[in-house]
Structure formats: structure tokens, C-alpha cells
Amino acid sequence: MTRRPPRPRERGIPEATVARLPLYLRALQALDERGTPTVSSEELASVAGVNSAKLRKDLSHLGSYGTRGVGYDVEYLIYQISRELGLTQDWSVAIVGVGNLGRALANYGGFGTRGFRIAALLDADPAVVGDAVAGLRVGHIDSLEEVVAREHVSIGVIATPAAAAQGVCDRFVGAGVTSVLNFAPVVLNVPDGVDVRKVDLSIELQILAFHEQRKADGRGGPEWIEALEA
User: Fold this and answer.
1) Residue 217, SS3?
2) Fewer Cβ atoms within 10 A, N terminus or C terminus of the chain?
3) Is 102 annotated as a binding residue?
């Protein structure tokens, strides 16, 4: 049976807080690699790129792990955030679309250390099927349902052209996958109970261009940025 990643917001954690937890985790892991045993909220907030009041409020949703005058135990907070995000177990991932983006995702070494196992690569192009990528043989898209069942796929990644994305998503959902990461430049329609996260690099660039324009116009001061990000 396909496992479903946990949904922290079901426990009353705001979506904006959930989105920042990976930032805190990354900052804590960097501190841990440097041998830092404890960290104050101000120091952690600075490393994570948020203000300390927001950080303390976010972490309060997880419980009370800080000690006044001492700060947070880095290793323990790493564990608590990892547990909340469902990263204390491995999640099986299938990537559909093995073009340049799909290959780059498959070859990214950071997934394995963060609880994600790339279990399968699938494509519809006969010229791509059979290629060896990141130690895996690219399978044909026709085997998607079989692969999901065999590898217990929890998360489907769509890196196809826009025209193919909805069909791939429908097949993932039909196979029991309820968490989808979409890199295709299209909005996917999914039934209730299915979570879709969309990654659109062009939108991110446009947002950065917006910030640059604001700064050029003299409207990009810290107070304005804080208001925008609240």
C-alpha cells in the first residue's frame, strides 16, 4: 500500500509555518555540521533568514523545546522538525519525465540524506527508455501503476512538458499516490485529499524581478519586505 507523507497542517500548524520548517532544518543541520550544540532564537533566525519573533512563534506550534538563557539544543530540534516533516523515515519517489530537468533531479545527491529515495524514473520517449540515469534504468510510462505498487511510491514528481502533465498526474492519483510535486508549467486538477506542490522557476524569477524593481524605485526597505512576507 502506498504510504502518504504526513500533513502537519492537520495538526493545526499554519501552512506558512510548514513552509518555513525546512528552512529551519537546513540552518540547524549547517550548525550541527559545524559542531554547534545550542543556538539562540536570534542566531537561528539569522541563519534561516527570518526574524526571531516569527521563528519562536513557528517553533511554538511544535512544542516548547527552547530553554531560557540557553537556547535550543541543535540535535534535538533537528529531530523534532524532521519528525514533524515526516523525515524520520524514507519516502519513495518516482520521477516522470527524464529530460534535462528530470535527470538533474535524479542525480541530486541531497534527496537521499533527507529521507527521499528516488525509486523509479519513467518516460514515454523510446529514445530515453532504457537509459541508465543515477544508477536507475529509465522505465516506460506504461509501467507507472506497476512501479507505484512495487516500489511503494509515496510521492510522484512530474517533470514532463505541460501537455502531458495532467495525464501523468491522473495516473499517479489513480495508482494511489496522493502527494505530487509538479515542475510542469501548468495548474493540475486533483481530487480532494491529493496534495500538489508546484515549482515554477519562471514565477520565482518574476518575483525576484519584482523585488529588484521595488528596490530600484526606493520602495524595497526592510519594513516593506517584512510586510510582504508576513
Assistant:
1) coil
2) N
3) yes
- Residue 72 contacts residue 41 (beta carbons within 8 Å): yes
- Element at 52 (helix H, strand E): helix 52-60
- Whether the CB-CB separation of 37 and 74 falls below 8 Å is answered with yes
User: Domain 91-199 belongs to what architecture?
Assistant: 3-Layer(aba) Sandwich (3.40)
99 is in an annotated binding site: yes
221 is in an annotated binding site: no
Q: What is the CA radius of gyration of the chain?
A: 20
- Reference 60, options 27, 26, 14; nearest CA is 14
- 181 marked as binding residue: no
Place of cell 496522493: 178
Domain at 8-85, CATH from 3.40.50.970, 2.40.30.100, 1.10.10.10, 3.30.70.1450: 1.10.10.10
How is residue 145 written as a grid cell? Answer: 501503476
Judge whether 63 is annotated as a binding position: no
Question: Which ranges of the chain would DSSP assign to H, the alpha helix?
Answer: 15-33, 41-48, 52-60, 74-85, 100-107, 144-151, 162-174, 201-216, 222-229
50 is in an annotated binding site: no
pLDDT for residue 224 = 45
